[in-house]
Amino acid sequence: MSIAKWSPMKEIEEMRRDMERLFGEFFEPLPRRRRRWWGKPVEGGVIVPNIEMFDRKDEVVVRVELPGVEKKDIDLTITENNLTIKGEVRRAEEVPEEDFYITELTYGNFARTISLPAEVDSSRAKATYRNGILEIVLPKKEEAKPQEIKVEVA
Is 110 exposed, middle or buried (0-12, 13-18, 19+ CB in 10 A)? Predict the structure, then answer.
């Protein structure tokens, strides 16, 4: 065993690389996979589907990426200012573990709760599911819609 000279600069450089990796993973968009902890997939964790949310004047539109999910396996809940999407991605057929060459597809439960930017009328909400994309249209409540007020100059 040889003795190596201790270098504080080497340790600082390793710490800098670790911090860059940590912040890089934290701020990058979450792909549709199981949540990760220190670069390792969490076994039995919950799949986090990708979303996009935008404003369409009188409504909020949310699109969720759910490829391979059947309509009957999707559950939507709207409570106050939150939208929760839950469900399950199921395997089309059971294949023994030893028969796989490669397996990168993710199966299991998924869940995502989104804070809504405005108060919505949940009784008039509509959802469509086409080509693996779930689109939820949430009409805004009257008091949440922006109102224009004219100011007269005297």
Answer: buried
User: pLDDT in tens for each of the 154 residues of the chain?
Assistant: 677 777 788 888 888 888 888 777 666 655 544 444 444 444 455 678 889 999 988 899 999 999 889 999 999 999 878 999 999 988 888 888 888 888 877 788 888 899 999 899 999 999 999 999 999 999 998 775 666 667 878 6
Decide: pTM greater than 0.85.
no
Answer whether 115's CB lies under 8 Å from 81's CB.
yes
Tokens linked to 24: 């890089």
45-94+105-143 maps to CATH 2.60.40.790? yes
Domain ranges for the chain, please list them: 45-94+105-143
* Rama region for 20: left / alpha / beta (φ>0; ψ in -120 to 50; rest): alpha
Sign of the CA dihedral running 39, 40, 42, 48: positive
